[in-house]
Write a structure and sequence with these properties.
This protein is an alpha/beta fold and 344 residues long. It is built from nine helices and 15 strands. The chain has helices at residues 41-49, 125-128, 132-144, 169-181, 194-200, 213-223, 239-249, 284-305, 324-333; strands at residues 3-11, 14-21, 29-38, 63-71, 86-90, 108-112, 116-118, 160-164, 184-188, 204-206, 230-233, 255-259, 273-277, 313-317, 338-343. Strands 3, 4, 5, 6, 7, 14 and 15 form a seven-stranded mixed beta sheet that branches. β1 and β2 form a beta hairpin.
Amino acid sequence: MSSHTAALLKHKGALAVASRPTPAPGPDEVLVAVRAVALNPIDHIQRGTLFFVPVLPAVLGCDVAGVIVACGANVSSSLGLAVGTRVCAFASSYYQEGSPDHGAFQSLVLVQKETVAPLPAGISFEHGAMVPVAALTAFTAWPILGISIATRHAPGTGPAVLIWGAASSVGTYAVQTAKLLGLTVYATASPHNHAYIKSLGARAVFDYHAADAVAQIAAAVKADGVSMSLAHAVVPGSLQPVLDVLHQTRGAQHARVAHSPPLPEDMPTPADTTVTFNLPSFDKAERNAHFHEVFHEQLKPALENGSLVPSPAAQIEGGGLSGLDAALDKLQAGVSGKKLVLAL
């Protein structure tokens, strides 16, 4: 194809569907015909603020599922990638100097080979599109906390970890990947999501709305006879209560927190705790090695054997690329326990 359709951000505030030239994949890339995209908070933030948007017009988005239609010379079939393969992929221009060829919100997108995973036949494109960014974010937190993602403790015997915001998209994968590693998970969520979060692998789930949530979690950890010095603060506003819990549960250990939202400017910095923004390395070689480990060594087999499943519930929006603005408005207004997805 010489051209395809894309949702272009030409200026701050709104997207416009237009035609753009179709690129050929570089040696280490694949070209994916997009069948579904999933939405993330960064998408509506970038649309409204041009945050980390170095090139206009831009193509936003980063979560896709579809079919490979062309492969670069260095894309080996040993990765399970070939023309015709159903895949899910992290398709983002962020690590490609803002290149619009690499943004998700278009019908054909370039993706680096390290961030593509084959999609099992039993997972739809709509559900497959929900996986890449949230799973990548969840996996990336574990090395920040000093835990290799290749770790496999016997179920529930590994170190205790607190996941604050477990019903969010990233939170559900934080729980699932923790279970995969064999960690002991204490989590927070709204009460109507407690059973679901437990089904994903949490040992105990607490209502973060409760005035004594911190005391409840600390008491449960102590009653279980463990110490807890690790946490993933998944959602905005979670850092202070996470620090309060770890202060009571870490014992003599130095505590570590992986923080997925941008760090608050007035962030507390207790001497006994290290708080780190949850982001892959800025070193390209290290980052690509991490991407390969996540997508090809962890995500691919986990999707195949069902130890990781698309989560949370999908909310399918209509209109394809033309429906993106309305769907992003819904996301910006607030969505609980759901992932917004559009079929193309």
